[in-house]
Design a protein that fits this description.
The protein has 377 residues and is an alpha/beta fold. The chain is built from ten helices and 20 strands. Helix 4 packs antiparallel against helix 8 and helix 6 crosses helix 7. Bound molecules: zinc ion (ZN).
């Protein structure tokens, strides 16, 4: 096995969160993982820089790729697809079964959508793989495992007889209200490509019912209707499920939860592919709202209302979950992506792995456009 036959490059989402797009030289094959867009602070959109594939890897076009595999539907992992779709002609695009539906719902709801094109018809062309089933593509095999981050999110295991790589995508090992926790494959991995959104410090945490109930009771004491503004429509299902849970446990009064048009389609997709029914007794589409009712409006629009419930929630792994993943999969090399890289002397997941495992596990943080070995040196 030759080192130069197994290489990794981040075309976006290496030393930053968002814009995820990675490429693997995997034996005789060239594989792309995700192709996301990234919002700059000025709200302009950036797509992955695929130049190294031409200059360094000798591709004539993206049509030379052997596969494009999506980890999940979030736009920071899929949003650049409309830009690249034409040059992907003939390339197999793979995802979990739920991802095409989730993707077209997110594009439908997408609040900014500068790249919005006919994503629904693009996602119709995806080849979907069932979790846990191994498919042989060209000279490598792919198996998807539930990643727990959102309905349809997958960890991608790629292997041939020489090498086994696991790409986590975004993952979460704890059960959320609409999706079960990740199922980690119990196999020895050569290289782990691992998200590190919370490589530094502590995530905002999972939704806490006691906190939510306390906030809602306080808001209801002030007025009959309040809003809950979400930054992306994907959070709406999870929040409406958590508030429904508060109602059924008697922690808050029997209020109505109205989901506005910007969030409805993704809630319906979550209902189809997640673990929980969303719409029903308490959760209703916004059109059912009429003046004088008591409850909560979930909206993608910053509301002018005085009373707003803002909830910070994480559906990403924290450092404990990442360390546990490493313990189970025993990688020789860990390439951290989708996060801010460490600086010397600060606490970061890269340092934590180095301190715990020493020479046994080689931990590095990827940098955009810098090609590195996939395998331990
Ligand atoms: Zn995500």
């Amino acid at each position: 096995m030759r080192q130069q036959d197994y290489r990794f490059i981040a075309l976006g989402g290496g030393n930053e969160t968002g814009g995820s797009c990675y490429a693997l030289k995997f034996g005789g094959s060239r594989i792309m993982l995700d192709t996301g867009m990234r919002y700059s602070p000025d709200h302009s959109v950036r797509v992955p820089d695929i130049t190294p594939l031409y200059t360094d890897w000798g591709l004539d076009g993206l049509w030379d790729l052997d596969a494009l595999i999506f980890s999940h539907a979030h736009l920071d992992h899929t949003g650049a697809l409309p830009v690249f779709m034409r040059s992907l002609h003939g390339v197999g695009i793979y995802s979990s079964e739920a991802t095409p539906d989730m993707l077209s719902a997110l594009y439908h709801d997408n609040f900014f959508s500068p790249l919005k094109r006919d994503i629904a018809s693009m996602s119709d062309t995806f080849i979907t793989l069932k979790y846990g089933e191994t498919h042989t593509l060209k000279d490598f095999a792919v198996t998807l495992y539930p990643a727990g981050h959102m309905p349809g999110a997958a960890m991608t295991l790629i292997e041939n007889e020489d090498c086994r790589v696991l790409y986590t995508g975004d993952f979460c090992t704890f059960e959320q209200y609409t999706v079960k926790g990740a199922e980690i494959p119990e196999v020895k991995i050569d290289a782990l490509i691992c998200e590190s959104t919370y490589g530094y410090g502590t995530p905002p945490g999972k939704l806490n019912l006691y906190y939510i109930a306390d906030r809602i009771n306080t808001l209801l004491a002030k007025g009959d209707v309040f809003t809950c503004t979400v930054r992306n429509s994907g959070k709406a299902a999870e929040i409406s499920a958590a508030v429904s849970e508060c109602i059924s446990r008697g922690m808050i009064p029997e209020i109505d939860i109205w989901v506005d048009a910007m969030c409805e389609k993704s809630c319906r997709a979550c209902e189809k592919w997640g673990t929980r029914k969303i719409f029903g007794e308490h959760v209703k589409p916004m059109e059912r709202y009429s003046h004088g009712m008591m409850g909560m409006i979930i909206t993608g629009r910053p509301s002018g209302r005085m009373y707003n419930l803002s909830l910070n929630m994480s559906n990403h792994a924290d450092s404990y979950e990442i360390m546990n993943l490493i313990k189970i999969t025993k990688p020789d090399r860990v390439i951290f992506v989708h996060g801010v890289p460490y600086e010397k002397g600060t606490h970061h997941i890269v340092n934590e792995v180095r301190e715990r495992y020493g020479e046994a596990v080689e931990a590095v943080h990827s940098v955009n456009s810098e090609e590195i070995n996939l395998l331990k040196e």
